[in-house]
Amino acid sequence: PACFVRRKAYEEVGGVDSSLIYTMDWDLWCRLAREEKRFLRVNEPMAAVRYYQGTKTLSGDKTRYEEIWRIQRIYGGFKIPTAWPGFYWFDLACKDKKTFSEKVFFSLLQGARLLKKKIEGSKPDLIYGFQRWEKKVFGACMIQFPWYGEKAVREIILKMRPGETTYLISFAGSRPEAFIAKRGEIRMPVYFEKGSIVNFSVSCPSSPAWELYKLSCELG
Asked: For residue 98, what pLDDT band results from cuts at 50, 70 and 90?
């Protein structure tokens, strides 16, 4: 999440702990909450984030898990690191090429996760139509596509499941246009330059639940 903090509140809690490598923002939020600082939610996109193997978060070693356990222990009073399985599931979910043992662990964690949700009776945790931390979409998804590259974008490429079916795509609230995902891929001619933000929504009339597992672009 994007979090903007008043300087006064930031300084009152001692600012960012520079000794932390992975959880310095989480630690700051916990200290702000402990001092009963007020948080306001802005229900609109404020930032964009990419998760891939080269990022600091996903390339972190055991130090990251030690810092996560520190957060639970200090601010939650936990006796065991109950957050570890969830974070390990997330790390594996973002990993394209898994080893055999990682595939086994991921399947076990995914099964436990789904069972927990079923027991709790929880509904899909959606963010603009996307299942949180997954590639699944329920209904229509909304995509905010900011572009800061030097070259203009000429084409947006979407890869989805199911393939060989029709998807409806609407740019900036315009009338939806039908595209067929040939071999699970849609290529949309567009044009926008540095500093532009393109908003579009995608839905699949034939399937209320579908997957958007890759988004890329061609530059001109």
From this structure: confident
